Amino acid sequence: MFTLPALDYDYDALGKYISKDIMELHHSKHHQTYVDKLNTALDSQPDLKNRSLNDLLSHIDSLPESVRTAILNQGGGHYNHSLFWHWMSPDGGGEPKGQLSTGISDKYGSFQGFVAEFTTKALGVFGSGWVWLQPDMSIITTPNQNTPINTGLQEPLLGLDVWEHAYYLDYKNKRDDYVKAWWNVVNWDFVASRLANAEHGPKE
User: How many CB atoms within 10 Å of residue 112?
Assistant: First the structure.
């Protein structure tokens, strides 16, 4: 059975940028629903229960058709959100350092250039979806709860949820204000650790 992961910080820890109300609703209601529906889908295919979520999503096209969409949507929601909580921190914000900073600057000219491109992609997502920074420093988007790994790409370094449920209580329909505020809580240390793992981890 998959379970809802605990947060590393309190619901009110992100202060004026992401409110307690948003965090509590997003984590305890929306994410919990993805977990519950994923477990329900797997009840009909018990042979899949011993496989990791990464494995299921990475081989989505080979899964039984009866549960494929549910695992993509609900499993993707669980995967995306489990990472999303780590991508934010009350001690976040500022700029990345080290290899991550160098990679971003090499690709986009400067950190500010990267922020501008990432923000443009985030605001360009039609409807609901996510925007991602990949290990090759490319920025991509996916619709709904799709993930980079279900399309054969590497795991993302950074991701931003641009579903309305992520910001509507705080920012109404102003996604641009939400994205601008979110940069103040980005956990660059976690992003850097994912880059190190991508560079030095086992290759499939």
Answer: 11
pTM (2 decimals)?
0.96
CB 68 within 8 A of CB 54: no
Nearest to 34 by CA among 5, 65, 8, 13: 5
CA dihedral for 55, 60, 62, 66, sign (positive or negative): positive
CATH number at residue 104: 3.55.40.20
Q: Cα–Cα distance between 38 and 147 in angstroms, integer?
A: 15
**Do 79 and 105 sit in the same domain of this protein?**
no
Residue 48, class by beta-carbon neighbours within 10 Å (0-12 exposed, 13-18 middle, 19+ buried)?
middle
Mean pLDDT, the chain cut into blocks of 10 residues (204 residues total):
97 97 98 98 95 97 97 98 98 98 98 98 98 98 98 97 97 98 98 91 44
